[in-house]
Each structure stands twice: as structure tokens, then as C-alpha cells.
Amino acid sequence: VCVCVCAACIETDTVALLFRAAAGIYIGPSDLGTSMGLGPGVDRREPEMLQAFDKVLAACAKANVVAGIHTANADYAKEMVAKGFKLVTAASDFGALSSGLSAVSKALQSE
Predict the structure, then answer these.
(1) φ, ψ dihedrals at 25, nearest 5°
(2) Nearest to 67 by CA among 12, 105, 25, 39
(3) What are the tens digits of pLDDT across the range 14-61?
(4) Which of 29, 46, 65, 99 has the fewest CB atoms within 10 Å distance of its CB?
């Protein structure tokens, strides 16, 4: 079981209770940001978001649960791995597919 985290979980320390049933905690930064009143977005740098990440990471470490996060690019993904996340998605399926198809299209147009 993997649990997605929202602001209510972080603010009320409910996130610790979720660990009893979870093998992992996954942060969707758009969902978390929206639930915190910051709006959607990925690769977040707002102090409130970074504090929320730290709180989840600390709770995960204490409970021996894997912490994961969605990111939009490799550089930010590397930052999140350095921060302590063990599961990091570095792109969305749509973004990866779109980038690949764009490269193929450009290659075909140049010939």
C-alpha cells in the first residue's frame, strides 16, 4: 500500500498513523500544494513545501517507510534523492511520451 500525502495529514500528524498500513508515502506536489493553499505545481521551492517534505521524510525515516515524490525533470529529481526521497519519478508519462514524439518529429522534418 502506498499513501498519497495531503496538507491535512501533515498538519494533524495523521501521516504517522498512515504508516501502519503503508509500505510507502508518495508526495504529489501539485496535490499537496493545492491542499496547502499554494496552488498546483511541480518541482516546488516554496519554504512551506520544503518544510512539508522534511516533515514527511522525518516521519518516514522514523517508521522505516519509503518516501516518494513526483518531479518534472532529472535535475530536481536528483535534488530530491539527495534530500532523502527513495522513490522519485522524474517525469510524467505524458511528458516523456510528448518529448520522445517531438524528437522523432524533428528528426523526420530535418531529412
Answers:
(1) -120, 130
(2) 25
(3) 666 666 667 788 898 998 898 889 999 999 999 999 999 998 899 888
(4) 99
